[in-house]
Amino acid sequence: MILKVEEINRVVQATILPEEASLTNADAFKEEMISIIGRGVRLVIVSFENVNYIDSSFLGSLVVALKYAMPRNVDIYLVSLKPDVKNLLTLIRMDRVFRIFNNYDEAMGTLS
Amino acid sequence: MISFPDPPTTVKKILLVEDNLLFRRVVESALVKAGYTCVLSESASEALELLHSETPDLILSDYDMPEMNGFDFRQEVLLNPNISDIPFVFLTSFTDNKLVLEGLNMSALDFINKETPIPVIISKLNNIIKTLENEHVRSVRELKVAAEALNVKSIPTHAPSVSGYRIFYWHRGYRGYPGGDFIDFVQVDSRYCFAFLGDIMGKKWKAWFFTFGFLSYIRAAIRFCVLDQDFNLATIVQKINKLIYLDESLQNILSSLSLLLLDTHTGRVHYTGAGDLPLISYSPKTGRTSTVQSAGLLLGLLEDGFYDNQELTMQHGDQLAIFTDGMIDIPSNGAKKSDYPFFVEKITPYLGKPDSFELIRKHVLDLIDDNNQMDDASIIFIEKQ
Q1: CATH code for the structural domain at B153-384
Q2: What is the ipTM for the molecules in this complex?
């Protein structure tokens, strides 16, 4: 398992467990995300609190999950990104397609 | 003192599954001394859990363990396609012939007796790993030869000569594999030349295979736009993006792209990017290094990728670089990190020199090797004469 998952009211908090989000776990992450999205949730909040490094394979999986989520009206938020990871995501404009929050609480605060 | 034989060239990670603490410590210390990284598990179930996040180069497992024995562990590993290919060796005090045969029949590479002197165990492991490495190198070479015979190249053989500019490029595949990076130049006429690079998200063969689909689209889109006399980069990249977005076979594949158009008449360089890293530019007049970020999203992500046009007026001696994200990945205290500002800092001292790119190659690029490279890395460097 790459994700530790908690679900309340069709909102899923999914915490990425490995510190290195890379080629070795990108496929497993994609499959876990797709199975979460496929079971009819409305929002998946992905926490990067453990992640120190993300490579392009894992970024690819994240984006594939988003492409799978969009036509199903499922949102994906990203939270708790460490500065290096956040900088990389911002540099390549991923902040334009994912909503990014400081932590779970902040992301949950947008739901009313 | 017993000397250990030479370890393989790159640091290899061995997963040791052994319930006996003392033996675990003894073997671990010998492996570390012999130049390996060691990951330890005291039970098969712990090892299976660990294999979700770790990919060792070899698994060394005891046979006799409580709960799940070595054979059951081996079966579990074989059932999981993500880890079934990892070389597997038994290390056990059970040396009954029938048992050894049963172990080897489960595609284990060796069945080593625990009574064997430690240096001999290490030698055996070294041999196994070296043999696998050689085999691997041979396979990669054969595939490369086959790809070359088919004339599919994701990296050009030489830079074009464009009047008024000096163009350099450099590429290194992740651990010597052809990977997901591509570089190309399209020389339209004596006035215009396109230069671009990109990174298919992924590594090794899978990404490499898709580079040709992407490259064909990019080349075709550029050619079609040129035929229409349309040199607007945002339009060109939006066309490429749409083609890729609508192509079902590329549905789950995304790529970054940095696209430059060099105009030899005006001396201007036009730039647009798709989810790429910001361009670095240097002007000797101000002595300053600056970065230019474009707005566009990764190719194939959304139907409209918000591509923009940036224009750089290049004066004599001005330099610029575009590069893929493998360039900014660096090992740091045993972990990995991506650090764009660090890369800018690293190349800045060599900018504005008569042979800047040679200096960058010598002091930055040539230092990238199998031990510190974490992804395909590519760069195009352009200087106005």
Answers
A1: 3.60.40.10
A2: 0.88
